[in-house]
Amino acid sequence: MSVDVTLRPFRPAHLDVLARWLAEPHVARWYPEPEANLSWAANPPPGGAQAIIAAGDADVGYLRWQHVDRATLDALGLYEIPANSVDADILLGNTANVRKGIGVAALQALTAEICRDPTVALIGLTTSVANVHAHRAFEKAGFRITRQYDPNGLGPCHLMILNLQRTQTPGERPT
């Protein structure tokens, strides 16, 4: 059975539901700083955006993303990642919605949105090496583990990348 998954605009009224989701044990394990995440959601940085994941008529999760600058990438030791790549984070707020393809569909919708910007070469996700369920979902959405690193002391994480293939149209000059 297929569920219709869409990305809806995040509104200030969603902060309460996001706070509840961040407190859920299956989410809190991977998002250990709920106040920092709520602060980001209340005031996204320049180049940052966010959405509520809806399955049918129900709000079921949260997705955020931002363009990453060279200085940030270098500070994390991610020298091979091009500037203006997009870093994304995703969560599903209720365990009843996990392993139903909702996260995969949400990441595919995000990819379609980001592909509209021809300057973005790739989308990256960082997830704990222990979060094997996320690895499988991200792989189904086209992401691949490229390496392991420790971002800002969060412990061993996998960097998962989706390269956005750009094809040249006839008559177009390469950039």
Q: Return the CATH class.
A: Alpha Beta
Strand order of the largest sheet: 1-2-3-4-5-7-6
Number of helices: 6
Strand count, sense and barrel status of the largest sheet are: 7 strands, mixed
The number of distinct structural domains comes to 1
Which regions contain 5 or more consecutive residues with pLDDT less than 50? 167-175
Strand tally: 7
Query: Would you tell me the structural class of the helices and strands?
Result: alpha+beta
Please give the radius of gyration in angstroms. Answer: 16 Å
Specify the CATH homologous superfamily. Answer: Gcn5-related N-acetyltransferase (GNAT)
Strand fraction: 25-35%
Helix content: 25-40%
Residue-averaged pLDDT: 88
**CATH architecture descriptor name:** 3-Layer(aba) Sandwich
Q: What form results from the Cα inertia axes?
A: globular
